[in-house]
Amino acid sequence: MAEGNIDRGSFRDPAGQVHLIGDRVFRTVMPMAAADYEAVRNRPTWRKLIDSGRVLPEQEVEPTVLGEAASEAVHVLEHPRLPHVSYPYEWSFPLLKAAALAHLELHMEALEGDINLIDATAYNIQFQGPKPVFIDHLSFRPYHDGEFWTGHKQFCEQFLNPLLLRAFLGITHNAWYRGALEGIPVEELNRLLPWRRKLSWKVLSHVTLQARLQQAAVEKGGKAEVKQRKLPKPAFIHMLRSLHGWISSLEPADTGKTVWGDYARNHSYTDDEVAAKKAFVAEAVRGFQPETLWDIGCNTGDYSKVALEAGARRVIGFDFDQRALELAYARAVDEKLDFLPLFLDAANPSPDQGWAQAERKGLAARRNADAIIALAVIHHLAIGRNVPLSEVVDWLVDMAPTGVIEFVPKQDPMVQALLRLREDIFPDYTEAAFLAHLRERAEVVDSRTVSASGRLLVAYRRQD
Amino acid sequence: MRFTWTVFAGLGITLLLTTSPAHAYLDPGTGSMLLQGLIAAVAGVMVTARMYWHKIKGFFGRGAEPKAHEKDDRDHG
Question: What residues have CB less than 8 Å from A132, skipping those under 6 apart?
Answer without folding.
Answer: A98, A99, A102, A103, A125, A126
